Amino acid sequence: MSRPGDLWWKSAVVYQVYPRSFADSDGDGIGDLVGVIDQLDHLVELGVDVLWLSPVYRSPMDDNGYDISDYQDIDPIFGSLESFDRLLAATHDRGLKLIMDLVVNHTSDEHPWFVESRSTRESPKRDWYWWRPAREGMSAGDPGAEPTNWRAAFAGSAWQFDETTGEYYLHIFSTRQPDLNWENPEVRQAIYTMMRWWLDRGVDGFRMDVINFISKDPALPDGRALASGPYADGGSHYVCGPRIHEFIAEMHREVFADRTEAVLTVGEMPGVTVDEAVLFTDPARAELDMVFQFEHVGLDHGDGKWDVRSLDLRDLKASFGRWQAGLADVGWNSLYWNNHDQPRVVSRFGDDGADRVAAAKTLATLLHLHRGTPYVYQGEELGMTNAPFATIDDFRDIESIHAYDELVAAGRSPHDVLTALRAMSRDNARTPMQWDASKHAGFTTGEPWIAVNPNHVEINAESARSDQGSVFHHYRRLIELRHTDPVVVHGDFTMLLPDDEQVYAFLRRLGDVELLVVANISTDEVTADVPEADAWARSVLVLGNYPVSKLLVRDIVLRPWESRVYRRA
Ligand code: GLC
Hints:
By secondary structure, the chain is an alpha/beta fold. The protein has helices spanning 33-38, 40-46, 81-93, 112-119, 185-201, 244-256, 274-281, 313-326, 345-348, 356-368, 398-409, 414-424, 427-430, 461-465, 471-484, 486-490, and strands at 14-17, 50-53, 57-58, 70-74, 97-102, 131-132, 159-162, 167-170, 205-208, 224-225, 232-233, 264-268, 290-292, 301-302, 304-308, 334-335, 373-377, 492-496, 503-510, 513-520, 526-528, 540-544, 556-558, 563-568. Helices cover 27% and strands 17% of the residues. Bound molecules: alpha-D-glucopyranose (GLC).
């Protein structure tokens, strides 16, 4: 059933591929585009609609491709423009769409724009980046002489002193990811031209990397001191900065205006609030289709992500509940547990021991039955877990390695820091996709760039596909349910039992059709005290993760990590 004003991406499910870790076709230990082509039928069997490809552009790989040195070429480790075109055609042939990662808050320091910009203060591209002299009264290069006190996301100051011209440049991420100056209209036009070039080539949209950081307060004021360390949080001067909506609306006009119906745009937005998200995704404002918010993936952070806390289920429900309500009438949610920056959800919020399969299915059920567009990150559909990293040498991620150095230097014990990294490191998401039980999980015939999780012997796509009780088939059923039952896509959302510490339950309703989702987020047996349970006497169970004999909803006793979805009309 489609409704007036329906947009295709409202009923779509997006699958994210992190090409480096997906499938290696040439035995160099690094995944590539031909590897993605070879495995496309896995996505087809799962039933997803869109493939989001993490960056494959030319890059020195300081941040695994999120540092781009040529926006209009493919890095040789991944393939070529020719293999990209083949992937795009193969994707379209299977009825899937393909969206690219768009990384335009910053470039690589090897991008010709930056090479030119840093060459002299008089360069015509000087103003394409943020160059500033040392703090007044201080000498360039001295400690504390940085133009602002902002901390970079990957440790240290957000300013790098550059000897050639005696000034500093801004980098919110690594020193090799200088921030572009969006105040300069030439920068914006160059980016729009590049975006149109990819759309003309046939891509179906963009996932936009930290796109809510592109507008900085040009006065560049100091930030708020952090709980520890010499630097401050500059976020209030660049997270959803003063011209952000103007820039996004301009991008929409210049790039998407005559093709909005066909494309999907999703903005990655750390720190975005519900109120801001409503503005970004209000169709009347013509900015973006949806945003990735970060609230739920910060609930187990204390003083930063390396201060790991356990999740209180009530916080998770309060957060999701607020986002569901906040974007109920205007705008649209994206839904995710995982991506290439987050630890594996079954280890993080679930149980990766004896109840792994039940926990992975229940977490999937919860997410996929909220209102919004779900994103599946490669391996999530297999219930892949965090990795048993033993020493710091097992990590590859720039953020993790810098954090280790910084925290150990500040006096935290290496053991303690490793424990935090094991829980939160981005490398948990980046171990190779587990295709089969063979050596290196069928990912590569060479030496993988990061170790394969030894549990691939048990957790892998080949065994999951042949087992109807697997996490994979549960994801497949959830995706099918979204495609066939409009209440999943359009139904309104009501959170139930917000104060229950173990049960996550909610209703979806569209006209006369109602769904009840009830889940046990614990290893205990629990009773779900669903309000007005009698009204569900004639419902049908549409999905569960345990065999169920008694279908009555009243006083449901749920086994460890059990979840059920009931439907009534
Ligand atoms: C985004 C990406 C992350 C990257 C950062 C800088 O958060 O998802 O992987 O390191 O931006 O580009």
